Amino acid sequence: MIGGDAAGMSAAHSALRAAKAAGREARIVVLETTGDTSYSACGIPYWIAGEVASGDDLVARTADEHRAAGIDLRLHARATAVDTTARTVTYRQDETTHTIEYDELVLATGAHPVVPAWARTPAGALVAGVHPVKNLDDGALWTELLAGPARRAVIVGGGYIGIEMAEALLHRGLSVTLLTRSRVMGSLDPDLGELIERALVEAGVDVRTDTTVTRLTSVDGAVTSAVTTDGDEVEADVVVLALGVVPATELGEAAGVPVGIARGYLPDDQGRVAPHVWAAGDCCESQHRMTGERDFVALGTHANKQGRVVGDALFGGSRAFHGVLGTAITRFAAGGRVTEIARTGLSTRQAVDAGHDVAVLATESSTVSGYMPGAETMVTKVIADRRTRALLGVQIVGGPGAGKRIDAAAAALWGRMSVDDLAEMDLSYAPPFATVWDALQIAARRLAERI
Ligand SMILES: Cc1cc2nc3c(=O)[nH]c(=O)nc-3n(C[C@H](O)[C@H](O)[C@H](O)COP(=O)(O)OP(=O)(O)OC[C@H]3O[C@@H](n4cnc5c(N)ncnc54)[C@H](O)[C@@H]3O)c2cc1C
C-alpha cells in the first residue's frame, strides 16, 4: 500500500481479515511519507482551535498498533516510482533508495492541497506564515504559528475547510478575513450559501466574495498582506490556504495508470485501476449515484469504505463500493451561535446540468418544538424532478440539531425515493428532538404540493 492514512490503512486491515478468512498468508507493506498513520485530518481545525488537546488525540491507530496487527509499516518512506510491468515500487527512506516487489499494489496517496504560485518564494518554499491544512504536520505547524504574536489571519477559500478554519482562528482570538474567488460554500445553492456568509459576518469575519488573491507582500520573508485583484491589500500575519485539493496521482500516471477529468484514478467498483493495481480514497474519482457520472468528492467517509473494499478484493472478496451522493456536513460556531451546514445529492445547478426539470423549494422551520428551550430556526431546501417526482437533493442550514437530519435525506436518495416518500416516511418525534412533522418532511411536503 502506498499511503498510510484512511484509505491505505483501511485496505491493509481489510486485507489481513480477508486473507485470514481465506486461509491465506498476507504480507502487507505500507509506505507512508509522514511519521503518522490513521490520523483524522477532519479533526485538525478543532485541534488548532484548542478544542482537541493534541494531535495525538486525532490518531485512530498508532504505528505500533498497526505493526502489532502484522503490518510491515514503513514511515518516512516516500514512494518515488512504480513499475507496473516489473511489479516494483521504488521508495526513499533515510536518504536511501529501496526497491520492493509486489504481487498487488494499492495506491492510497490521497490528495494534494492546492498551493498557488503566489504562496511560494522564488526558491519554491512556502512564504513564512502561509500554509495549508492537510495533515498532522500542518496541524503542528499551525499550533506553533498561533502560539506566536499573530493577530490577523487571512483565509483564502470559502469551502468547508475555510469555514472550519475561520471558526478555529476566531476561537484563538485572531481577526479573520475570508477571501473567496466566488462565494461562500459553493457546493450549496447560492441562497443557502448567503445564510452561511451572514453567520460568518455576524461573528465578525470580514468576508469578501468574488475576490481573487494575486500576490502577497512580505517583510524579512514573513507574510504581511494578501493583495487582491481589486488592488486591496489585506494585512495578515498568517494566511490559510483553503483552496481545495487535487488527486495525488503522479506516481500512477507516470506508470501509465489512467486518470479522469479531475485527474483522479478511475477504479471499478472493487477498486481495480490496472492489472494488479488498485486505488482507494482521495486519489480517486467516484461514481455519483444521482448522475452515473464520475465525480471527485474527497471525503474521509469514502476513503474508509473504498479502502475496506480494496483490501477485501485483494484476497478474492466480493465487496463493492456503490458510489457517492456528495453527502457532507460541517458547522460554523462562533460568537455564541452555531450554524450547521449539510448537503446531499445534487444542487439545483447540478440537477439542471444533469437535464432534470427541476422543482426546488427552501422552507424555514424549527429544529425542535417551538415551545421547547433551544428551539432554533433551520432552512431545508429540497430539490426534485418535476416530471418524475424523484428526490434529487437536500440542503440544510440551521441551528444545533439541524445538520444531521441530512442522513435521513441521504438514505432517501440512496433508496431512490420520491419527494412524496420523503414527506411520508416514518420519522421520529418528541418535542426535544423535532416538530411533529419533522423539518425535512415539512420541506418535502411543501415541494410535493407545489409540484
Ligand atoms: C482539514 C480537513 C478537514 C476534513 N474534514 C472532513 C470531514 O469532516 N469529513 C470527511 O468525510 N472528510 C473530511 N476531510 C477529508 C478527509 O480527511 C480525506 O478525505 C481523507 O483523509 C482521505 O483519506 P486518504 O487515505 O484517501 O488520503 P490522505 O488522508 O491524504 O492520506 C494519504 C496518505 O498518503 C501519503 N502519501 C502520499 N504520497 C505518498 C508517497 N508517494 N509515498 C508514501 N506515502 C504517500 C500521505 O502522506 C498521506 O498520509 C477533511 C480533510 C481536511 C484536510
Kindly summarize this structure in a few lines.
By secondary structure, the protein is α/β, with parallel strands linked by helices.
In words, what does this structure look like?
This protein has 451 residues and is an alpha/beta fold. It folds into three domains: 6-112 and 246-314, FAD/NAD(P)-binding domain; 115-243, 3-Layer(bba) Sandwich (FAD/NAD(P)-binding domain); 336-450, 2-Layer Sandwich (Enolase-like, domain 1). The protein has helices spanning 6-21, 44-49, 63-68, 136-147, 160-171, 190-202, 250-254, 300-314, 348-353, 406-414, 419-424, 439-450, and strands spanning 29-32, 72-75, 78-83, 88-93, 96-101, 105-107, 111-113, 130-132, 152-156, 175-179, 206-208, 213-219, 222-228, 233-235, 238-241, 245-247, 272-274, 277-279, 286-287, 294-295, 328-334, 337-345, 358-366, 377-385, 391-398. Strands 8-15-9-10-11 form a five-stranded parallel beta sheet, covered by helices on one side. Helix 1 (6-21) packs parallel to helix 8 (300-314). The N and C termini lie far apart (50 Å). The model has no long low-confidence stretch (mean pLDDT 97). Bound molecules: flavin-adenine dinucleotide. Flavin-adenine dinucleotide is lined by residues 2-8, 31-34, 41-42, 44-45, 78-79, 108-111, 133-135, 161, 248, 251, 281-282, 298-301, 303.
